[in-house]
Each structure stands twice: as C-alpha cells, then as structure tokens.
Design brief:
single chain; mainly alpha; 0% strand; globular
C-alpha cells in the first residue's frame, strides 16, 4: 500500500475510540455550557484548526511518533501536549 507523506495508518480501534471520546467531550461541553451540540462542534473545530495552523510539520510528525511509541509500549491512552 502506498501511503502519501501527509497520511499515516492508525489502528481501527484507536480511531473508533478517539471518535467516541470526541463525541463524549462534545456532549459534556454542551451539557456544561448549555450550547447546542452543533455549536460545540463548530467551536472545537475552529479552535483545533487554529492550533493546527500554529504547528509545523515536524511537530505534527512528533505527534505521530508518540502515537506509534504508545502503541509499541501498549499504552491504552495517550495524551499529546500542544
């Protein structure tokens, strides 16, 4: 399989778990703030895009390396610092 330089392979279960975690976080944010789910998605997406714009490719590659190191060490959860 030829993977472009701007993509990487992620374990399906990790992807599903991260997606569920994001959904739970959005639901909690909505409950805490009284904002709609759609508003919370928009706010977090905009903030994530803003933070991503500040990262250089080396920093992003560091995140990917941390993911693979975590998988190698069989870590269940991995927290990345921006």
């Amino acid at each position: 399989m030829n993977i472009p330089d701007d993509e990487f392979l992620m374990n399906k279960r990790d992807f599903a778990k991260n997606t569920i975690c994001y959904g739970l976080a959005i639901k909690s944010l909505s409950n805490l703030t009284g904002r709609s789910i759609n508003d919370c998605i928009k706010i977090t997406s905009e903030e994530a895009s803003h933070q991503m714009s500040r990262l250089d490719p080396k920093h992003i590659d560091g995140f990917i390396q941390q993911y693979y190191i975590g998988k190698q060490n069989k870590l269940e959860n991995l927290t990345l610092e921006l």
